[in-house]
Amino acid sequence: MMNGKQRIVSALNLEPVDRTPVWFMRQAGRHLPEYRALAAEHSFWERCMDIDLCTTITMQPIHRYKSIDAAIIFSDILTPLPALGYEVEYGGGIRIDPFSFEDVDDWSRFSARQHAPWAADGLRAIGEENSEIARLGFVGCPWTTSMYLMAGGTGDKEFHSTRAKVYSNQEDAMRVLLSVADAVGDLLADQVNHGGADAVQMFDTWAGLLSESDYRKYAKPATERAIEVFRSKAKRQVPLIHYAKGSSHLHHEIRTLDINAVSLDWRDNLKVNRAEFGSEFAFQGNLDPSRMHGSPEAAQEAAKHVLQNAGTEPGHIFNLGHGFSPGAQIDCVEAVLRTVTGE
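User: That's the sequence. What structure does it adopt?
Assistant: Structure tokens below.
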């Protein structure tokens, strides 16, 4: 019988597994009462930066849900920003210090080891006692991270004004995107080199807002740069998963990136993707997260449908099509896990 680490790594390498591996985006966090208890006593940055808190939170879903195969480090895609000079506040949305394009001239050269080592430190600490599960690192893609930075947080719905700023200042915007790419590439490499991550994921949550031509012009070159920095700095080859919400119109571009797996959202056709591209890429997803908010029976039926669409060929990791929301029900999660693992 394989352990979680073997399942995850094998699936990402398109190798046979004894059962479908499973983990959930945002599994460590808001839907768990044990997390909410910690969050009531410690600020978000404390939870990220204190290694004991970080590892405790990362492992909470593993302790509750015994059949989950991977622990994704508790962190955030905005962790590079304080080192670049921007205070980031959480609670009732995200607030970030004002940004201007001229700021980029004053940005210090970002070093994950020096400026934001916590994710890697947490991954390393977990590995000392948990060799059976896969350890996953992550970063935000430059486009999504830069959207929050330029918007000053979460106030600009669908980033209308922020995207307009990009389109009206194309050269300046590319400088920002490529500079952020250097930072997130280094951050991801640190999670492999120091943290010992078995696989890593890049989140481009807001890439789906872009047309195909705008994605090709702005977001894709920055993601390519981040991956290039990551691959050149990482001391060993690990699988890379790419996730972009609402991005089916961009998948032919995303598939040209130097990635091993595509994480699909709930609107994507898993069956078609697996049939057409399953020999080239592993696929992750694509259960609708809202299925975790109703009855366990309905959640199970939805999970069965995902498994049916995934088929039996190697290279599928069961996951959600986006992260857990706070209202996700524990009994639904348990029902889905029973369906996936047969336990």
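The longest helix spans residues 170-193.
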